[in-house]
Specification:
It is globular and about 55 Å long. It starts with 8 loop residues before the first helix and ends with a helix. A hairpin with a 2-residue loop joins strand 2 and strand 3. Helix content is about 45%, strand content about 10%. It contains 10 helices and 7 strands. The relative contact order is 0.20. With about 260 residues, it is α+β, with helices and mostly antiparallel strands. A 5-stranded antiparallel β-sheet has the order 4-1-2-3-5. It has a two-stranded antiparallel sheet with strand order 6-7.
Length: about 260
C-alpha cells in the first residue's frame, strides 16, 4: 500500500494506545473513545442531523430540542432515542453511515497536518463505536471504488453541469435527482447537502454520470452550505476543538429510512 493510498498512520497508533480525544485534519475531525471511532464530521459531508431531517424522518425543531436539552451533557443521541424521536436501531444505522461518510473526506490524502487533542469529546455522544481498522478499510475501499468508476478527480470538488442524455439513454431515478441540481453553481458536496444524502454516495453518482457523458465540470468550486440544524452558543465550549461515513449495505439501508 503506497503512502498516497493509505490513511494517516496516527489513527492506528491512537487505536493501539486506546486513546480518547479528537483527531483533527483540514477536511474533518474523528472523535475516539478508548481507541475506537465514535463520531466523525467533515464540512464536505452532511451530518446525522441533515440525514435525519432532510427526508422528514425528524423535524428540525426536534433536532434543535435534543441539542438544547442534552448537548451540554454530550447525550444528544440518547435523548433522541429515550424521547421516542428516533428508534435506536435507526439512529445507529444513520450515525454509523455518517461516520464513514465524514471519515472518507477527513482522511483524504493531502488533507493537511494531523493533530490529536487528548480528552476532547463530541456533544452528540456515543452510539456505536467503530474500530479504526474498519474505518481505514472502508476509506480505502471507497477510494478504489471511485477510481474504478471514473478515474478523474476533477469532478469531485468543482461545480458540475448536466448534459442532455443521448436518445434512448436511461438515467436511474437516483441519478436524475443529482442531474437536476447540476446547474454549474453546485459542487458535489453542495448537491449532497441539498439532497440530504451521504456525500460519498453522491460523489459516486457524480463519477458514474461523468463516465456516462452526462456531466461537464467548470473550473471553480463553491463552498458547501452549512448544516440546517443550528446549535446553541454553548457548543463551542464543550471542547477546545472545532466541530467539523459502512459498507455498501449501509447505503441502501440508510437511504431506505430517509
Amino acid at each position: 500500500m503506497t503512502a498516497a493510498r493509505s490513511v494517516p498512520p496516527m489513527l492506528l497508533r491512537l487505536a493501539e494506545e486506546r486513546a480518547t480525544g479528537a483527531l483533527l485534519r483540514d477536511h474533518g475531525t474523528l472523535y475516539l473513545v478508548e481507541g475506537r471511532v465514535v463520531h466523525a464530521e467533515s464540512p464536505a459531508a452532511p451530518g446525522v442531523d441533515v440525514l435525519l431531517t432532510a427526508g422528514g424522518r425528524l423535524a428540525p425543531t426536534a433536532w434543535r430540542e435534543a441539542v438544547d436539552r442534552a448537548g451540554a451533557r454530550r447525550e444528544v443521541a440518547r435523548y433522541l432515542v429515550d424521547s421516542g424521536r428516533v428508534r435506536g436501531g435507526e439512529l445507529e444505522l444513520c450515525h454509523v453511515g455518517a461516520v464513514f461518510d465524514a471519515a472518507f473526506f477527513a482522511l483524504a490524502p493531502g488533507s493537511g497536518p494531523t493533530r490529536f487533542r487528548y480528552g476532547a469529546a463530541h456533544w452528540f455522544g456515543t452510539v456505536r463505536p467503530v474500530s479504526a481498522a474498519a474505518v481505514e478499510r472502508e476509506t480505502l475501499r471507497r477510494r478504489e471504488l471511485l477510481d474504478s468508476v471514473w478515474p478523474d478527480q476533477s469532478v469531485d470538488t468543482a461545480p458540475v453541469v448536466a448534459r442532455e442524455p443521448a436518445p434512448g439513454q436511461a438515467v436511474p431515478h437516483r441519478q436524475r435527482a443529482v442531474l437536476a441540481l447540476a446547474d454549474g453553481t453546485k459542487s458535489p458536496a453542495a448537491i449532497a447537502w441539498a439532497l440530504g444524502r451521504p456525500a460519498f454516495h453522491t460523489l459516486l453518482d457524480i463519477r458514474r454520470l461523468a463516465a456516462a457523458g452526462l456531466l461537464d465540470t467548470p473550473r471553480e468550486a463553491r463552498t458547501p452550505p452549512q448544516a440546517a440544524g443550528a446549535v446553541p452558543a454553548w457548543v463551542a465550549t464543550v471542547s477546545d476543538d472545532p466541530d467539523i461515513a459502512l459498507l455498501r449495505r449501509l447505503r441502501d439501508a440508510l437511504e431506505a429510512t430517509l
